[in-house]
Amino acid sequence: MSRSHFSYTRDQLISLSQTVIEHAMKSGATAADTEISEGIGQNVSVRQGEIETIEYNKDKGAGVTVYVGQRRGHASTSDLSEAALKSAVDKALTIARYTAEDEAAGLPDADKLAQNVPDLDLYHPWALTVEEAAARAQACEAAALAVDKRLTNSEGAGVSTHTSQFIFANSLGFCNGYAGSRHGISVAVIGEDASGMQRDYWYSSARNGNDLDAPEIVGRTAGERTVRRLNGRKLDTRTCPVVFEAQIATGLIGNFVAAVSGGSLYRQSSFLLDSLGKTVFAPHISIREMPFVRGGLGSAPFDSEGVACLERDVVKNGVVEGYFLSTYSAKKLGMATTGNAGGSHNLIVSHGDLDLAGLLRKMGTGLFVTELLGHGANMVTGDYSRGAAGFWVENGEIQYPVEEITIAGNLAEMFKGIVAIGKDVERRGSKQVGSILIDRMTLAGN
Question: Confidence band (pLDDT; 50, 70, 90) for 175?
Fold first, then answer.
């Protein structure tokens, strides 16, 4: 589609970024950085076989950060004209002159900036017409509803495409950027029987449209997941082992990342303070950050400050080997940036040889969680409490679906209580992990 073509060339974005930096330095900034970007997307959704929405988005913008000594100011604009960019710089300088000094404010050290920027194969525009997208969404929804006659309604299916590009530059001479893409297909359907209604969904996501699962596979999976939730029961309160399905087990890894990220650490608001070099996970668990995976959804050659990303062990044999730090948080902690301004990059969690069925057999009797509700993780104490739904398992076999329950524990104990991780690795995001078996949690029900 014509909308997939960017309005600006890479060279034009570079020129605009240099305009920003030069104007900032001439106007009194002692240091400055800027990110200039544009993005283009299309989303087509259908419901009950009919097109429901057609959405296009096309946006652009620039963010400007300036430093006057240890004072920082930031401004942004969606107008990329030279006059608007210079005006944003002027506003950022005005803000900086009135803010308090912060000894941690400033750009990264020059030797930390990325020198070599490899092509990580992140950009795959998808020239998908509205008609083609609608046909895929319709096929996806039809496949879902065809699974069982008890699937009586649909929340719709959608096919989305998105591409973007950016240039980041600073007054230390760094100027680089790249284009990226992300495409997806998803569907959610509703099943109904005498016991009531249930809903579930499925999706596929990839940088290259050719790597997406077929619409029929996505639909059939969503339909099967919804049907198996019918006739859900409640459980009495108890303590038991719990298996987190891979797609929600990524949330547990996200909790760990949040707890050992710079902001939580220097604010003293983490249950994992001073955990570097200490055992936090079960000894068979390792987590490696791999930012240079070609085509990876979490891949990046440098972070949002231009600092080179690092391939490294974050956890090795259960022991924390590294935090997730930006330049600012590293200075606050008296440490060095880890190239994680903006977040983590492709966290690969070790796993064993068991598939999901094998993991359930290893658990024996317990809860298999396939959905979590609410936000119940306290990063200060590690206390964890979430609404949940899933299946009760006995003798390693699923017995019946369960709903309206709450699972609770403490993340510190849960991490150390990981019995095994399955080889059914979730690969649709930046945190790749299989289903996780935890030795014991409290299940609150009737």
Answer: very high
**H helical segments located in 228-379:** 246-259, 262-266, 327-333, 356-363
Per-residue pLDDT, averaged over 390-416, amounts to 96
Cα separation of 405 and 387, whole Å? 6
pLDDT at residue 183 in the model: 98
Asked whether the beta carbons of 431 and 402 are under 8 A apart, the reply is no
Q: 32 with 66: CB under 8 angstroms?
A: yes
CA atoms within 13 A on the CB side of 226: 34
**pLDDT above 50: residue 2:** no
**Residues in contact with 218: Cβ distance below 8 Å, sequence separation at least 6, in sequence order:** 140, 143, 185, 186, 187, 202, 203, 204
pLDDT for res 424: 96
pTM over 0.70: yes
Q: Identify whether the C-beta of residue 195 lies closer than 8 Å to the C-beta of residue 203.
A: no
CB atoms under 10 Å from CB of 373, counted, come to: 12
Residue 1 in contact with residue 127, Cβ under 8 Å?
yes
Whether residue 3 is predicted with pLDDT greater than 60 in this model: the reply is: no
Cite the beta strand spans of 322-396 per DSSP E.
347-349, 366-373, 383-394
Beta bridge partners of 153: 190
- Residue 86: helix, strand or coil by DSSP? helix
pLDDT given at position 262: 96
With a CB cutoff of 8 Å and minimum separation 6, the contacts of 156 are 45, 46, 47, 52, 137, 141, 187, 188
Mean of per-residue pLDDT scores for the chain: 96
Q: What angle do CA 378, 333, 93 make, to 5 degrees?
A: 100
* pLDDT (tens digit per residue) in 302-330: 999 999 999 999 999 999 999 999 999 99
**pLDDT band, residue 195 (cuts 50/70/90):** confident
User: Which residue in 159, 135, 146, 134 sits closest to 223, CA to CA?
Assistant: 146
- Look-up of token digits 């803000």: 95
* Residues 391 and 400 sit within 8 Å (Cβ to Cβ): yes
Beta strands 347-349 and 287-289 are antiparallel
**How many CB atoms are closer than 10 A to CB 415?**
24
Q: What is the reported pLDDT for 201? A: 96
Q: Measuring CA to CA, which residue among 391, 426, 401, 400 is closest to residue 240?
A: 391
Q: How many CB atoms lie within 10 A of CB 332?
A: 18
Strand-pair category, 347-349 with 431-432: parallel
Q: Which residues does 105 contact at the CB level (< 8 Å), separation at least 6? A: 67, 70, 71, 72, 328
Q: How far is CA 41 from CA 57, 126, 232, 406, in A?
A: 5, 10, 39, 38
